[in-house]
């Protein structure tokens, strides 16, 4: 009788053993384990706060990103460090406000500076823990040889050295330029770089239509080749920065036109990354971070994204310029289908993944904080106390703590009161000027109602934070140099440049 019972239970015992083995294999690895978790950062270009279905987008579908949000954490108060390309990317890679490391604006083909090799990047920190590292896509923190990814901690690189609009043709693909844009005719053809060498020139919008697929295939190949090692993949898409271009797979697929088509292809790209991780049984030991470098370039109208009701867009320190979508997934660590309303920023990614991987913190001062408690779902955690909104070379334009944002007096480029462009052509900018204003972002995310007269004590508190920032990082608007800024890297006369 006992033998019969055992025989009857044997299939169940075998099944339980198999489940146990699979569970053990898929248990996420932590810093004290033999192999730290993989890190995948997917960094978008000019994606607005309202550009994903999970953040309110309509007329196109992002099912893979919806799934990522459903299986992970969606941040509602996540900030790019600055509302412009190069500054934002330098900040992400170093965990510093970009003015601390000497990078501002959008570096162009004639720039002689780049991210200083003396700075510690995410890639360099993770390599010390045995990670294989790859950068795929837009780089934009220095195109000369000393500043390219292979000299900044990455084992592999394929992508563009700067934005896809820095070309000798205009947004319509023609090689004629309106008044004020003639300098662009002297730009080199857009170079596609592999490693340290240019391997191709992209001379048409049709060439650019290949980019999302090319980046995706390169990223998938990197993951497949490094399945047995911890890896760091930095996938920085060139889209949806204008000029927009999409492959034939997605052209005409959305109800929103070309912008929606581009976002659907980006969503497909995310799906390919997730599918590859699942196929290789790496999902549970991989942290995926999806976010954007800044908000939407609104004067491009139907070729621009949505700030989701936030004020202004790219190139401003209002919420539409710097508050961006962010989704993170790490099964069994990040609680599924959660929303984080705490303050966080792209500068927090470096110290967080360093803690996760067990790597050493940089010797130089950084500005990021470890947000791992937020990822674990600790509702009492509040690692980021405040945030500084810098723009330009070194302009301190706002300070935030908790629900309160103090906008400091400054002039700014504005999208309000002017008609945006259409079909890929830009509209005009307006100019705005603001005095000291206090906004309650919990009740007024559109930054319309000044509360400074009602809460003078909050104004004083935030002015105190601004004074600390000026002593540390400086502020060109008030003539403060700051005591803890570091220089960008500069090309020496005898230094080999990237050809």
Automatic annotation (TrEMBL):
The keyword Calcium applies. Residues 475-499 are annotated as: Disordered. Residues 1-24 form the signal peptide. InterPro entries: Alkaline_phosphatase_core_sf, Sulfatase, Sulfatase_CS, Sulfatase_N. It holds the Pfam family Sulfatase_C. Keywords: Calcium, Hydrolase, Metal-binding, Signal. Residues 37-358 form the Sulfatase N-terminal domain. GO terms for molecular function: arylsulfatase activity; metal ion binding. Belongs to the sulfatase family. This is Arylsulfatase. It comes from Anseongella ginsenosidimutans. The lineage of its organism: Bacteria, Pseudomonadati, Bacteroidota, Sphingobacteriia, Sphingobacteriales.
């Amino acid at each position: 009788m006992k033998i019969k019972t055992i025989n009857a239970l044997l299939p169940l015992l075998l099944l339980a053993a198999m489940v146990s083995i699979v569970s053990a294999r898929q248990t996420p690895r932590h810093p004290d384990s033999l192999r730290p978790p993989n890190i995948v950062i997917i960094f978008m270009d000019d994606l607005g706060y309202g550009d994903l279905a999970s953040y309110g987008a309509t007329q196109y579908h992002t099912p893979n990103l919806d799934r990522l949000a459903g299986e992970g954490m969606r941040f509602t108060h996540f900030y790019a460090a600055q509302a412009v390309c190069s500054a934002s990317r330098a900040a992400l890679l170093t965990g510093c406000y970009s003015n601390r490391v000497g990078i501002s604006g959008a570096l162009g083909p004639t720039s002689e500076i780049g991210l200083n090799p003396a700075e510690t990047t995410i890639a360099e920190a993770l390599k010390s823990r045995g990670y294989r590292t790859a950068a795929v896509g837009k780089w934009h923190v220095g195109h000369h040889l000393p500043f390219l990814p292979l000299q900044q901690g990455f084992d592999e690189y394929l992508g563009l050295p700067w934005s896809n609009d820095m070309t000798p043709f205009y947004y319509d693909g023609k090689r004629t330029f309106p008044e004020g844009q003639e300098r662009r005719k002297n730009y080199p053809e857009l170079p596609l770089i592999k490693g340290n060498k240019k391997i191709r020139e992209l001379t048409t919008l049709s060439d650019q239509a290949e980019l999302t697929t090319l980046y995706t295939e390169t990223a998938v190949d990197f993951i497949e080749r490094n399945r047995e090692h911890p890896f760091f993949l930095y996938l920085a898409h060139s889209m949806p920065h204008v000029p927009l271009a999409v492959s034939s797979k997605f052209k005409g697929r959305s109800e929103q036109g070309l912008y929606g088509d581009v976002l659907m292809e980006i969503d497909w790209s995310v799906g390919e990354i997730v599918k590859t991780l699942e196929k290789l049984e790496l999902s549970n030991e991989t942290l995926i971070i999806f976010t954007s470098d800044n908000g939407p370039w609104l004067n491009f109208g139907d070729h621009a994204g949505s700030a989701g009701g936030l004020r202004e867009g790219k190139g401003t320190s209002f919420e539409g310029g710097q508050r961006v979508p962010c989704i993170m997934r790490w099964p069994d660590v990040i609680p599924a289908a959660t929303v984080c309303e705490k303050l966080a920023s792209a500068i927090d990614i470096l110290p967080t993944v360093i803690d996760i991987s067990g790597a050493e913190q940089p010797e130089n001062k950084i500005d990021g904080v470890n947000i791992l408690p937020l990822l674990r779902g600790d509702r009492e955690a509040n690692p980021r106390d405040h945030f500084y909104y810098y723009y330009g070379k070194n302009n301190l334009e706002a300070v935030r703590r908790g629900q309160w944002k103090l906008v400091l007096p400054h002039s700014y480029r504005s999208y309000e009161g002017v008609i945006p462009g259409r079909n890929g052509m830009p509209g005009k900018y307006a100019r705005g000027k603001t005095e000291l204003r206090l906004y309650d972002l919990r009740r007024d995310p559109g930054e319309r109602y000044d509360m400074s007269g009602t809460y003078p004590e909050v104004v004083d508190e935030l002015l105190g934070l601004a004074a600390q920032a000026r002593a540390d990082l400086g502020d060109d608007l008030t003539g403060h140099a700051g005591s803890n800024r570091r220089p960008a890297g500069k090309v020496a006369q005898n230094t080999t440049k990237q050809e």
